[in-house]
Amino acid sequence: MSRASLSVSSAAGGFRSETDMTDISHGGRRLHSHVVRPRPIHLADTHMSFRFRARRGSKIQANSFVETTLSYALTYIAAHSAGGRISAARLIVLADNDYYSQSTPTPADPARGRFAKFAVPLSGANKTGLGSSAALVTSLTAALLSHYLPRDAFDASTPEGRRTLHNLAQAAHCAAQGKVGSGFDVAAAVYGSCTYRRFSPAVLAGLPEPGAPGFSDRLVATVDDAASTWDVEIEGGDDDLRLPAGVALRMCDVDCGSQTVGMVKKMLAWRAGDDAERATQLWDELQHRNEALAAALRHGRADELPGLLAAVRERVRDMGRRSGVPVEPEAQTELLDALGGVEGVYGGVVPGAGGYDALALLMRDDDGGDTVRRVEARLAAWSRDGGKGSRVRLLDVKGETEGVRLESLDEYRGWLA
């Protein structure tokens, strides 16, 4: 019996996927008679089982991100395994507390630890919008690859291993969410802090559905990039995009979720519609402003950050008004403006696809924590007096530069029973 655990440093430090394997026979490349039971053990009533066959027969409610990841990862692994043999798996998925909103009921014990147990099922756990689905897909994919494949076939610490992980996780994540999204959250989960230009949608457009004829061959060819079709651009690394000394990236939970997929679809429809010319112009202007912000961070010009962040937000609001998508809603504008007036705060943005559920702040990382105390006091006052019914808190998480990494199971002994 062997185990593998993988950590993904996304915004909140990451999902950890632990695998506990025993051998059974597996017939060829097709995934049949393979039982997988993922168990998020810090949420109530979240036991799920998937039995992969040529045809679906399970009556258990699907979890699209878990099920799609298993379909894609195990198909790829079976194709690269001698004789197509693969083992049964028991999976334990742990998510850091900051992936969940304060509106999710938690134990009264303040010392609940890094992975709190919630008294709600998975469907009732409100998230903070930190890219948890990408972290889940990436870490689960990496844990499966690390366990099933020999080190010379997959090693997440090498450029080749990260490229394989990135391509496979992107394919699974896009399929699970309807092929909508930039893919940046998966790239960040794999590579850490980076500048990113998305691959062409055509890269994944030709993949059949899992179980359809040709799926295995097409998936393997796509992930291994046999035809050199991946035109993604990912630059950066542990040091290249490190924040300037004395500057921290922090996140705020605004206790209100957004329907990200619906917002993205509406934004893309506007971009392709009658206002396409103006949309492209705004998109290009936003890109230039983002690049200017990245350059200031890269070269340590902290004094330029307030103006550059304001310029980025200006274009984001323009896009929101013209598309009808609340990328930076009025309530978020008011809150960001209020926080921008706090001593030690350079400014912030609404991250990801936008909406109401989170804020990202660049702020002074002072030794005494004075800036944090001022921000927390301002957020408490906002929630109490001017929050329009919302509660806002500063999360413990800070920005990370590292991406995926293999970790020792010793860190998680108490959760593996």
From TrEMBL:
Entry keyword set: ATP-binding, Kinase, Lipid biosynthesis, Lipid metabolism, Nucleotide-binding, Steroid biosynthesis, Steroid metabolism, Sterol biosynthesis, Sterol metabolism, Transferase
Record has Iron as a keyword: no
Entry annotated with the keyword Isomerase: no
Molecular functions per Gene Ontology: ATP binding; phosphomevalonate kinase activity
Alphabetical GO biological process terms: ergosterol biosynthetic process; farnesyl diphosphate biosynthetic process, mevalonate pathway; isopentenyl diphosphate biosynthetic process, mevalonate pathway
Annotated EC: 2.7.4.2
Pathway: Isoprenoid biosynthesis; isopentenyl diphosphate biosynthesis via mevalonate pathway; isopentenyl diphosphate from (R)-mevalonate: step 2/3
Catalyzed chemical reaction(s): (R)-5-phosphomevalonate + ATP = (R)-5-diphosphomevalonate + ADP
One protein family per Pfam: GHMP_kinases_N
Gene Ontology terms: cellular component: peroxisome
Domain (GHMP kinase N-terminal) ranges: 126-192
UniProt similarity note: Belongs to the GHMP kinase family. Mevalonate kinase subfamily.
The protein's name in its UniProt record: phosphomevalonate kinase
Native organism: Purpureocillium takamizusanense
Lineage: Eukaryota, Fungi, Dikarya, Ascomycota, Pezizomycotina
